[in-house]
Task: structure prediction
Amino acid sequence: MATQTVNLANAKARRTTVAMKLLMALTGALFVFYVLMHMYGNLKVFAGQESFDSYAHHLRTIGEPILPYAGFLWLFRLLLIGSLVGHAYSAFYLWSRASGARSQRYAVRAAGAAAFRSKAMRWGGVALLAFLVFHLIQFTISKVNFNGDVTAASIGDSPYRLVVASFQLWWVVLIYLVALAALGLHLHHGVWSAAQTLGLTTSPEARTRAKTAAVFIAALVVVGFALPPLAILFGLVE
Amino acid sequence: MKITLEIWRQAGPGTAGKMVTYTQDDVSPDMSFLEMLDVLNEQLQERGEEPVAFDSDCREGICGMCGLVINGQAHGPQVTTTCQLHMRSFKDGDRITIEPWRADAFPVLKDLVVDRSAFDRIIQAGGFISVNTGAAPEAHAAPVQKAKADRAFDAATCIGCGACVAACPNAAAMLFLGAKVTHLGELPQGQPERDARVVKMLTQHDHEGFGGCTNVGACADACPKEIPLDVISQLNTDLRRSMARGN
Result:
């Protein structure tokens, strides 16, 4: 026995900060899967209007006739919304705990990569949340066309034409590139961090593998998502 | 060497402190950092001023008692404890800021001395194994794989100095926790209490007001004993397994 022990009869694993991080890691892993699928769908823009539009339509007919029209899509959306709530809740919980854990700041802070990653993760996450609202309004909820040169009639209900009209504007592309930079940084730390939280990195080799995977996924996502808007902006896709 | 020091002075717990500047004109590069502070304190005493309070004990880098944040780095620029840091790590004319570990779970007692008994309570919550005292069992009775013995030993080099907390942007003590959980969890003697240990130690850690881990790795960079970040992954694994078993 230790000379004196603390009585923690009611201690529960699910009430610890590590359980919070598990929630963040698992929901984050779902987002990584989703983002990769989303990127794959976006790249269909290079296969032409018919391919892109029929892909968008098929997303709504997956699971038919067992599920109603757009049934699978809505189930998946509900899962994503639930995950987003869990991801953001654990993030803000841990953020507020961290702010309360050091009320007297250091006078001098060694300019470390660690502090930058911490800030990039939190403020980058907030930026991504703001971008998500804009992105959903633009392409999902209101389907807004900012391009005055393209009429609503010519777009009709074609997602392809809306995407092409949108990314012919330099400032829309710029917003997306900034958001991609935030997403890249978020994934660069997040993928590695999720591996660490899920306990996949208990040896130096595994740690190196997880860090490499994080860089690879972050780079893949940035390039994969940046290609369609840039191709449209420079007139390679019309 | 001529050195300008900016040192955190605080009269007592809960009182406001501030950085105070001192100059040292005749510092030898062979002095240890703490000897340099000893000399400063002698001068302060001669002038009738209050000496700077700081912790130290063995001055051999093994007890974990000393710990100062020097120029924003826990234990200063070398991978060692403050007592094993020497003035040759600095240049003539340098300005050096010295602050205590900053974490609400480690309240400042005076100047650079902090109360680290939060670590003691975390150990008391589960950082032990229960054995009957008396006749020691034969050491080879419980075989341990070489790799596990090595990993346990590496984790056991943690001296509980608190540099991980001082360096962490969240003031979390996960490297300390991970070291203890890995050290005991790799060995047969640590198995009976393994599932309960991780939950109890983490609960006490959170209760003490330390922050949560964001896997940035500042702790492992600051650790004078070079405890690797993978002990935190082990901690996370143990917690997940314990949760799956209904704890």
